[in-house]
Specification:
By secondary structure, this protein is of the alpha+beta class. It is built from six helices and twelve strands.
Length: 259
């Protein structure tokens, strides 16, 4: 009788972590930057149908990198949780911290389970307050760890290179146009040189506290995005990421959010 193959728990967790990190690194980065009137999300995303950045609730937004089908399932679950909590209790009871904790439990359980592969995703959950000091940004990794980010954060792709550029150029109290310029330049920065990302390849959204309606999330595209970017010179096509994990076809349309 042959003996069963044994793998130590430490080695098993290491292998699962390496698997998830490699999958996440194959995608393109997402940058989140705090500016004077809210929180800005910027990502290089040529697809006009598959969003990396989406609204969850009135003052809460969601951004992710990795496998689209996996983080889309998480996004839909977050929308349903927020709607149920807001309907059963009060809209003010729906918080970014509560959603981040729910996502952390889900990701941690999946990562620790030996019966299925870990999710190849990282997530941002951001919530804006009445003042800039009340804004909150949570970063969740594939294994359910939660980090409270400030000023700026980046995940996916060449995150270290992009973060180093943000550290050097990001300033407090920036306007929307200034924060957008810093984020886009960081995404186009690499160790081999800088490139100009075409405006049509950018996915830009913001949680804007100056909006009069309760829902503070808005997408910035078209002429509005071009006006904010200004003249940046000739565009440089993006290199195709090796073994990109984002699929090219949507598997689940974005559901409407209750007013």
């Amino acid at each position: 009788m042959s003996m069963p193959y044994y793998v130590s728990p430490e080695q098993l967790m290491k292998d699962r972590a390496d698997f998830a990190r490699k999958g996440i690194a194959r995608g393109r980065s997402v940058v989140v930057v705090q500016y004077v009137d809210g929180v800005l999300f910027v990502s290089e995303n040529p697809s006009q149908a598959l969003h990396k950045v989406s609204e969850i609730y009135d003052r809460i937004a969601f951004a992710a990198v990795g496998r689209y089908n996996e983080f889309e399932n998480l996004r839909i679950a977050g929308v349903r949780l927020a709607d149920m909590r807001g309907y059963a209790y009060d809209r003010r009871d729906v918080t970014g911290r509560g959603l981040a904790n729910a996502y952390a439990q889900t990701l941690g359980t999946i990562f620790s389970s030996g019966g299925e592969k870990p999710y190849e995703v990282e997530i941002f959950v951001a919530e804006i307050g009445d003042e800039a000091a009340d804004d909150q940004i949570y970063r969740l990794t594939y294994d359910g760890q939660v980090a409270d980010e400030h000023r700026y954060a980046v995940m996916g792709g060449a995150a270290d290179v992009v973060a180093a550029h943000l550290e050097e150029h990001c300033v407090d109290g920036a306007t929307l146009a200034e924060a957008l310029a810093v984020a886009v330049n960081a995404l186009g920065h690499s160790e081999t040189g800088d490139r100009v990302i075409p405006a049509e390849d950018l996915e830009v959204a913001a949680l804007d506290r100056t909006r009069s309606q309760p829902r503070k999330f808005r997408r910035i595209r078209g002429q509005a995005l071009g006006d904010l970017l200004g003249d940046r010179g000739p565009a440089t096509p993006a290199p195709e990421p090796t073994g990109a994990t984002e699929p090219t076809e949507a598997t689940d349309p974005e559901p409407p959010i209750a007013p």
